[in-house]
Amino acid sequence: MSELNNNVDTARAAGTGLTMGAGRLFGVIRAVYGAIPGPLLGLILVCVVFSWLSPYFLTTRNFINIFSQVSEIGIMAAGAALVILIGGIDLSVGAVLAVSLMVNAWLYRDFGVPFVLSTLVGLGVGALVGFVNGILSTYGRIQPFVATLATMSACSGIALFVTNGGPVTGFPEWFTALATIRVAGIPLEMIILVSVYLAVAFWLNFRPTGRALYAIGGSEEVARLSGIDTQKVKILVYVIAGLLAALAGLILGARLDSAHPTAGAGDLLSVIAVVVIGGASLSGGSGGMFGTFIGLLIIGVLRNGMALLNVSPNLQPVVIGVAIIIAVMLDRRSQR
Amino acid sequence: MSELNNNVDTARAAGTGLTMGAGRLFGVIRAVYGAIPGPLLGLILVCVVFSWLSPYFLTTRNFINIFSQVSEIGIMAAGAALVILIGGIDLSVGAVLAVSLMVNAWLYRDFGVPFVLSTLVGLGVGALVGFVNGILSTYGRIQPFVATLATMSACSGIALFVTNGGPVTGFPEWFTALATIRVAGIPLEMIILVSVYLAVAFWLNFRPTGRALYAIGGSEEVARLSGIDTQKVKILVYVIAGLLAALAGLILGARLDSAHPTAGAGDLLSVIAVVVIGGASLSGGSGGMFGTFIGLLIIGVLRNGMALLNVSPNLQPVVIGVAIIIAVMLDRRSQR
Amino acid sequence: MFDAAHSEPGLVCRKIVKSYGSIEVLKSVDLTLRPGTVLGLIGENGAGKSTFNNIIAGVVAPSGGEMVLDGAPYAPQSPSDALARGVALIHQEIRLLPELSVAENLFLGRLPMRGGRVDRASMEEQSHAVLARLGMRIDPRRRVRGLSMARQQGIEIAKALLRDPRYIIFDEPTASLGEADAALIFEQIYRLREDGAGVIYVSHRLDEITTLADHVACFRDGNKVAEWHRMPVAKQDLINAMVGREFTFEHHAPQPSGDRIAMRVDGLGRDGAFGDISFTLRQGEILGFAGLVGAGRTDVVRAIAGADRADTGTIEVDGVKVHAVSPKAAIAAGIVMVPEDRKGLGLNLDRAAAANITLPWERTLQRFGMIRPSDVSEMGGAQRDRFDIRGRMGLPVGSMSGGNQQKVLLAKWLVREPKVFIVDEPTRGVDVGAKMAIYEIIRGLAASGIAVIVVSSELEEVLGLSHRVLVMSEGRQTGILDRKDATPESVMALAVGGKAVRPQLEPSA
Amino acid sequence: DSKPVIGVSVADQKSLFYIAAVDGMRAAAEDLGYELNVQAANNNSRQQIDQVNNLLVQQIGALVFISQDSTAAAAGVKAANRSGVPVIAVDQRPETGSGDLVTYIATDSVKAARDLCTWMFGQMGGKGQIAILKGVLGSTAEIQRTQGCEEALAAHPDIEVVAIQTANWDENEAFKATQNILTAHPDLDAVFGESDAMSLGAAKAARQAGRTDLISVGIDGFPTQLKAIQEGLTQATMAQIPYTMGYMAVEQAVKVINGEGGDIPELQYQDAVLVTGDSVGGVNAADFYGPAANNM
Ligand SMILES: Nc1ncnc2c1ncn2[C@@H]1O[C@H](COP(=O)(O)OP(=O)(O)OP(=O)(O)O)[C@@H](O)[C@H]1O
Ligand SMILES: Nc1ncnc2c1ncn2[C@@H]1O[C@H](COP(=O)(O)OP(=O)(O)OP(=O)(O)O)[C@@H](O)[C@H]1O
Ligand SMILES: [Mg+2]
Ligand SMILES: [Mg+2]
Fold first, then answer.
1. Among A5-9, A244-248, B135-139, C14-18, whose mean pLDDT is lowest?
2. Start and end of every ABC transporter domain (chain C) (predicted)?
């Protein structure tokens, strides 16, 4: 009975003279709308529009394209989401991608270091930069924005410096072949992307250290008084972010069979945007991997769809801007 | 007596066997060190190093260069400082610079609108974008990062769209002449820069609306409960930021005698960096115009000094990164 | 439309309703406040007192009902509307801007101007005057950060007084104050009443209500369940109305403590804060910390619990030396502390109550390397039942009433049995029923052999609970009294003891 | 010791073109015994003006100026003119023609793009679908290379441009853009990348999609592109000779400093060299990008 009343109320609130049946339908729609988590609604809307406008949008091949196009940004965004969750920010991700890949390629080519070893060193460089970010923003008591701005600057310089600005080509065959490998029709990079998200999401939801991130982001002092070693956890988060950026670099290197010192430089804003569109707050404590993944797909689908429609490159940024606003407006959770 | 004890304590704390006199000297140095506001110390250090390394650094002409080199970033940073003070962020400044200048140049060249009028329209565009930023992040309840990311994207698209990506040249002579005018040996842009800072600082310190920014940044809820119309003030702040970005665009247009749709695109990070190096916290409520000005000079002097020393372009970012860390570390206020 | 009563001066509220979603927080409340009187408002935690006050002060909009102020309809859209009509509210939670000066906090939203600039001189002068009226000597130019809770509460009151309100609401102003500071506030209330203002006074300290109020209303579950227009009223009647049944106070003496030493603190100190703190604590013993507000009790217990470092001294638990360099180390050694500021230090208000409770214990919750949400809610549910917490454990703690938040905070620290349990101001802002429940919890802990330290500004509380009372003054330990020797007089004598040692001057900003 | 320093302001030190030009300059300076002060501006014309001013403060003898773009070049040239420092412009010069230059050394970008597109259309038999991958919108190189291709298109009515996207000179962006274009236009015949990096990205995307027959051409003549042409991944490039241009610039700057600049022509267009699968065997990357090209 009360449910019925509810529906009637809703219908009345909508200011229409609907019959009982229509009111019930409206209530169902509202319930479905309410049940879908925030940014997903924006994604669905974008997808509906594009599949209506372009016959190529809803094809398997195009979906695989979308995933592979967002793979590096997506992997970096997974790390960025963690950093943002603890109320920090990491501006160095793009530069870390570049420097780790350049060091890797440089050691392999100019010093004949075995590729597996040089790759490990490259990943180590990523982790090291993350460690420095962590130390500076905890024990160094420097705002993460400033600390990571400094390491970003330093890393982009070092990436240029090792080869004096030149790119490096000629990775091992087997490595570049990874970029085209498909497992059951799914490209490896897509598998890596999804695995990273699943692993991070598991950590964040089911492991004590991962769960501590929410506590730290909510209130660092409360977390500290609750016996969490906040400094250690924060440093770990920056290390993970650095490692993931280096991993993204590897994927990029395999795809292009080359290492560019300026690779990743333009990705920074996209990476942070993905996390924030996914519903995270830059002040920390809220957000998660599901939202980030949706944010990633919103950006990926928008870019892909406009390319399919051959929208003028001059207009694309305008459409993206408007679409971001609409997508976020649909997210009622962000409206608090 | 207690002061004396203090000095002795200090000397002892320094772990040295200093005599009383040296202890006193040490105390004086410490007192001076303590009295200098934070980031200024970093600036002084950077200046001392450069004047020691380069004979050209300490010349009037070079100082005028430094000021004129930071003028647009500085003017944009004044607006960004206000936005950051209320706990917001404005990613659109660079794009606003571009779009306001392009609209101005486009109206003037393609429609024969009198230049003074087209300039007013250009400034109006800046204010309008700021207004949209403000509305979206207050009544629209969208995080400022997302709202201004969207307007940034839209503005950079519109800047390209009006002339289909082409730059515009040929401003009136008298306008470009402004770029080389000097009043008592001081370039006009330097006068404008300093005036903007003084005006904003006055507003922030002595006018109720300006003071309200600190309250809003400290706690919006407290400000609202105290009867401050927080929404209105926040919108005003974004409008000011937009206007200042458009003003920076005018200075750039006069200097380069051209309007470029991608002008200002690379300035965003520098603008925010200036504010944050100047001691502001991205979570709002702290910072001010003096600190921002010092932050501006730190960035300006670093870039200028390294050019004078002929540091390899690839190494410059590394040095800048390290210098930022050192400059900020010297700021004891940020160490809380 | 309006009956004759409306032409009389006063604030008349009729059928005030407030609901959050499907939850009705206020269910049709009628209440009238006359000028020149004090209306005492009582009720259990979560009864809806603060919500009612917020509606009157324009902070939240009612879902239904109407208000009439001095004969004219009154529907404030914002706090500034309310202030413009002469209605001011002193919030239950302190709401000041720590980075701004005291003077600026006082004048926030209406800074005085002269010659196009903010008139700092007159602002500071007026601030000085109003603070002096409240017996507070604070430099108006210093920042609020670093001021004790009591002083911040005083500033909140000064801020409201500066508006010259005709109707003023005090929502638990004395919750964080000692008796001396509370007396200053009462003086102000008497003065306001004499000047013809209408005052609403909310408190869980019923003695305050019986002394101050001319008229008392009691809320329960969003309804006004009782009203007394004639004073005096017996305290027991108030309690019965609040709780909704016969409720008896029992003041039983604590059970005797054990013999084994649980904790030994020797010569604990930190430069500029406190020093020479030495005591032993037996298993099952409750040690009270008494002293004037700002005596440094919180600093001491924070150092013991690893929240701040100590420069000198040693701590032993069960004969083993503890290096309490961090809360983590202290917890591992069996020392837990419930901090005094539940909003800033104790709980994460945006997170679910269950997640707050499990936070320190998640490592022990793991099964097969993972923490399952069901285990979290199970632990939350168990603690809810154990401590009689009213509210959904899956909702953010911030949406619970103050008393229930306090219970969540205690529950968080009592998931596992500690060796030493420290509570700082355990009953701040808690209703009588909950207060008794918390006392029972503390006594029960002691009875099970846990050593307990209770820090409280309510002398009655310290004396009623403790086996022994440690008294502090100006950061020094001035004495430890046995239960039989601890009287209000003997404790106060020690509490003011070391006064001359520390200069009374304000630290400048 | 009395020899003045030669100031060099270059748009950036990240892309091979500029790196090679500066390498050429350094080689010339070494050969002639002069010192260089090289500043790079991160592709920011505003910053470049600052750097020119910073160089002028140090009383340089001549300025070799590779402007980030032609519209903003005038301000730098004028500043040098005001200080009486001779300017040798490379690659870009003030669009409006204002300011005094000793000489201007550049590739004729419009012609290079026109010739390249014409060659590509020939390969396609004069008809079919193409896509254009543009550089950073509004940059001079983008505008000129687009213009050159449009001129060629005007002469080939049966060539249909089915997609125009920007990939900001970036290989990875070109890769993604081409993926999308190939999805929407499976019958695409050729891609004109306005730079080699974008051409390489396009070719790799085509290879991933199994389109080995897609024609991909670029402009620049980077060593990586030459290798790709050799392997058949891409089909052609227009090789510029930045190393030589840089060498010439410093050589001529020295002449001007020594008062021997009278016979330097005002305009020195350097022809870009079309390199295709047929001719790639006969060229060496070092011819275009200097000795350093061999270890890239
Ligand atoms: N924003 C909100 N959303 C949902 N419920 C709320 C909200 N604010 C308050 N409540 C609920 O309203 C009820 C009344 O709360 P209120 O703060 O008025 O109680 P109170 O009588 O002041 O209690 P206390 O003595 O503890 O301060 C509580 O149950 C509380 O959980
Ligand atoms: N008169 C005062 N004015 C300003 N600050 C004070 C004053 N007295 C103490 N303080 C500050 O408060 C701290 C000591 O207060 P603390 O909170 O530890 O004492 P407390 O006895 O627990 O009092 P409370 O009842 O407020 O919790 C000191 O570190 C000091 O900075
Ligand atoms: Mg309350
Ligand atoms: Mg205390």
1. A5-9
2. 11-246, 256-499
Tell me: the pLDDT tens digits for C415-445? 988 999 999 988 887 888 888 888 888 998 9
In this prediction the pTM is 0.86
What pLDDT, on the 0 to 100 scale, is given for residue C150? 76
> For residues B242, B246, B248 and B251, what is the CA-based torsion angle, rounded to 10 degrees?
-170
Strand partners of residue C269: C312
Token pair of A40, please?
């997903």
> Which chain C positions have a beta carbon within 8 Å of B286's beta carbon?
99
Element (H, E) at B270: helix B268-277
Looking at the DSSP bridge assignments, the partners of residue C320 are C317
Residues of C with Cβ-Cβ distance to B227 under 8 angstroms:
78-80, 83, 108-110
Q: Is the CB of C301 under 6 A from ligand 2?
A: no
Of all ligands present, the nearest one to the C-alpha of C302 is 2
Maximum Cα–Cα distance for chain D, whole Å?
65
For chain D, the average pLDDT equals 89
Secondary structure letter of residue C272 according to DSSP: T
The 8-class DSSP code of residue D144 comes to H
B18 and B82, same structural domain? no
Q: What are phi and psi of A241, to 5 degrees?
A: -60, -40
Domain membership of residue A81 as a residue range: 38-335
Q: Does residue C63 sit in the same domain as residue C136?
A: yes
Same domain, B10 and B23: yes
Residues A208, A102 share a domain: yes
Domain that includes residue C74, residue range: 4-242
Retrieve residue C207's tokens. Answer: 């003695």
Name the token pair of A158.
């070092």
Residues B160 and B217 in one domain: yes
Residue A114: CA atoms inside 13 Å, Cβ hemisphere, count? Answer: 3
* Burial class, C416, CB count within 10 angstroms (exposed 0-12 / middle 13-18 / buried 19+): exposed
pLDDT for the residue D2? 72
Are A116 and A205 contained in the same domain?
Answer: yes
The alpha carbon torsion through C355, C358, C363, C368 (nearest 10 deg) reads: -70
Residues C262, C181 within the same domain: no
Residue D136 per-residue DSSP state:
S
B42 and B30 inside one domain: no
Residues B89 and B144 in one domain: yes
Interval between CA B220 and ligand 3 midpoint (Å): 21
Number of domains making up chain A = 2
Chains C and D touch each other (3 or more Cβ pairs < 8 A): no
Q: Are D63 and D85 in contact (CB under 8 A)?
A: yes
Q: What tokens appear for A33 in the block? A: 């709308």
Q: Is C339 in the pocket of ligand 2 (CB under 6 A)?
A: no
Domain boundary among C191, C225, C242: C242
Residues B137 and B92 in one domain: yes
| Torsion C120-C125-C126-C131 (CA) sign | positive
Distance from the CA of C147 to the center of ligand 2, in angstroms? Answer: 7
